[in-house]
Amino acid sequence: MSAGPGAPSHRAPALLAALSVAALVLAVCWPALRAGFVSDDFLILARLEGLEGLRHPLAYFGLRHFDYYRPVAFLSLALDWELWADRAAGYHLTSLALHALNALLVLALARRMMGVWPALAAAALFAVHPSHHEAVYWVSARFDLLAAACVLAGLLALRLPGLGGDLAVSGAFLAAILSKESAIAFPVVAIGFAVFVQQARPARVCRLLLWFAAAGGLYVWMRQAAGLAAAGGAARVPKLAVMGALVAFAAFTAHRGWPRVAAQLRSRRAQASAGLLVAVALAGILAISDSVGAPFRLALTSTGFAAAHLLSPVGLDALVGSLPGWFWVAGLVALGGVAVLAAAGWPMLAGRPELLFLVLFLAAALVPVSSMTEGTRYLYLASMPAALLAGLAVARVPRRWAPVLTAVVVAAIAVGGWDLRARGADWRWASEMTEAAAATINAGLGARCDGRDVVLATAPTRPRGVYANINIESLRRLRACSPERIDTLIRAGHDDPYVEAAWTGPNTLALRVSPYRGGFVASRDLRTFDVTLDAAKPALLATPRGTIEARPRTGGLDVRIAVQSALETGEEAWFVFGRGGMRWLPRPTDSASAVAAGGRLR
What is the mean pLDDT of the chain? Predict the structure, then answer.
């Protein structure tokens, strides 16, 4: 059957919108192809090489990545290994393609709830959101990209009828959760979409719940077969309970019927508004308590982290990791703002089911990552409902405010796109710095490279807001060097400091950091880094490698490391990171010229 004369003109705007989104992603994120491997990328490459790419695909279903179980995402990386080996551009091309696909899926989902141009605004805001630089530019964030793609594909598959549709939706859920654990949000989102957007009957919701339970049971069995805990540990049980409560709310709405639930919501505006405001005030009071405030501050910090990054048109990575004190205050302000908006717009919230769905989507996406504030990739899924809410605002705004809101959206897209594109230079710098650091460490170890210890007096973690830590796998792949171990004494956070370093005695290393803007974190056991070196007060801690003493001074920080001489065997090589590079610190027992060469970072 041929389409009517009006069909091409109807499809033309949607096709133009899709082409525009794809072109926007390509134009903004193209610098990803010039970045290399950094940080955990080398761990992934080692696993891919050990399993010989796709020669043993079933082996990935028994692979444990730390405490995580992500075989589907690893299979996608194994395919890259088959195509590109260790050429980074190929992996980044796949990540770029996945991000473009996700932007197009956001556009398709938005079209179910709003017109073409508001949907285009939502997809464009998602495509260029500055918080996406980790997900797009870091190969190790493949898990987030693929899980999000499966979630969106599963939502769109809800329109398919019968058994085939149920299999498609539950299969998408299983693939998503086998890509990353945070996709546990999908059943909440899918049930919410079926109830609030599709107005599904209770029988349909029950059938979906049964399919999700079956997929979840299969996932648990697979995790346990791989030697992992069923739920990933007791710490995740409260989050699972919250997710269950959100599912129960959506299922109750389907059972009672949306019109009756909406009427009940409207009739309880005063009680709900007062309850929200009291809850926020109580959270703020408890957060300032010394005895019971810690968990409340942590929850508010997570809220502030998400709100700041999702609402900011530019990246805020200089604040990530150090978690400054104002983040929990920002979370309290954000919750207060949400409570006020909900109180003012309660009739709209109760009267528009698609708006309620997006709020549910946002909550479900944030709950699984609510304690993870060290990276913006955790907000990748949550940025989708945030962008869709912005698109819905464009679609529903009164006509007199439309020009103003359109200008704001266009400005946000322009600023976000510029910021996201600029971050590509930082990720490229991080990969080049990693290669140069590997060469420096290899040269410092000399001919007897294998089997020796590497000690990093200071080491990069997230300079310039990108991951750049040095690990044994990076040395093995970049320089074919296999030291016995790498010990880090102090991690340098987001700053890229100027560090002067010199041996003042056979077992005493002096570091002078100037200026010092914070971000140095030490560890008592060289594994858990939780001792912040404050710019205002001294610190003293003992480590297996020796004693670290930090003393603030005007505009800087002095650090003295008293090396544990009993552990010295002559097989250790010391290095320090600062001003964008790694430098070797020859011991005083070496030649005087070598000591002079290693004494200062320039």
Answer: 87
